[in-house]
Recover the amino acids of this structure.
């Protein structure tokens, strides 16, 4: 059975299932196996960059990062890969 023997409907189903499995794999990797998994943050922000992009486009990202600092501490993950470190101001 070659790929040319498949009907269009089966190809669409294959594409949709493959996409869902890829996204699920990516989310589970970010939550469970990523090297930065031990840094605290809201689970949705750790799982996918979509939350970060949405908050950036709507203009609420700086306020949410501030709330995240207040809730989780000085070092937080704001997306799957980047993390933020809040450095307190120094007096001279």
């Amino acid at each position: 059975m070659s790929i040319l023997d498949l009907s269009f409907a089966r190809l669409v189903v294959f594409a949709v299932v493959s996409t869902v499995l890829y996204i699920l794999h990516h989310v589970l990797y970010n939550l469970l196996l990523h090297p930065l998994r031990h840094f605290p943050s809201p689970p949705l922000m750790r799982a996918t960059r979509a939350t970060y992009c949405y908050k950036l486009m709507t203009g609420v990202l700086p306020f949410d990062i501030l709330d995240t600092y207040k809730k989780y501490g000085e070092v937080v993950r704001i997306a799957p890969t980047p993390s933020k470190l809040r450095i307190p101001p120094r007096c001279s």
Notes: Residues 3-85 form one domain. The CA atoms of residues 8 and 52 lie 36 Å apart.
